[in-house]
Amino acid sequence: MKISVSGKGGSGKSTLAALLAGEFARKNFNVLVIDSDESNTNLYRLLNIDTMPTPLMEMVGGKQSIQRKIRQVAGFQFLNESITTDKIPDEFIGKKDKINLVVIGKILQSKEGCACPMGSLTKEFLKKLNLRNNEIAITDMEAGIEHFGRGIEEYVDVVIIAVEPSYESINVALKIKELAEQSKARKIFAVINYNRPVNENIKEKIEKMVKGKFGNVFSIPYSEEILNFGIVSEKFSESRDVRESVKGLAVQILREI
Ligand SMILES: Nc1ncnc2c1ncn2[C@@H]1O[C@H](COP(=O)(O)OP(=O)(O)OP(=O)(O)O)[C@@H](O)[C@H]1O
Ligand SMILES: [Mg+2]
Question: What is the pLDDT of residue 109?
Fold first, then answer.
């Protein structure tokens, strides 16, 4: 099963990707997390992996040549073959227990050009990625909706949309839903992520709005641990209520797919 996590900037995509990875690993799946955000670098830390693996972009010759190379089918071995996690060289994979991480690429220099080659690489990678039965891939997308324009969701089974408690975030989520419905994704889940404390009255309003648009509503409670990690970035761990809510989401994903 291939899952993507998208949503407005700062809505909690990376946090949700990491929480879900942990939950599926506890359910005894091998999880491959794909960092497809070209700007933020913190996902490996959310997974408690010591160092960020070398981005795949480096394996295929660096950003400058990637677009040309993607078109050159001959000789482009890695992306030519069906990709299995065990075939990814050690340098390009971070590991922690049952969780593996690959990083697509990061913008490193000014004037190095747009992030399109990274989008192409994510798409190629997901297209060729051949998962075993007990394996789940979770892609942490860049903020917003550009990845839909690139057709990345053609190779994703489940689209998860992180929604923070704001009107704008719900708007972005609705756009993502519309785009996901046009893709090959079989299931769409909206998850309200309380990345700030809100009172019961606002909670009720937000949940009503999301429920009205998405049907089922899942939510992740506001958590001091997560907020604290976001500031000091020490070892990531979640509280019981957060873990329970992610568990409910994971169970539903497995049930419906
Ligand atoms: N449930 C939560 N409770 C408290 N803080 C949270 C929660 N979820 C996320 N945060 C905080 O909100 C911030 C944004 O979260 P995160 O980085 O996961 O969002 P994102 O959507 O991946 O952001 P970006 O668009 O920049 O990639 C982080 O500082 C994180 O620690
Ligand atoms: Mg992120």
Answer: 78
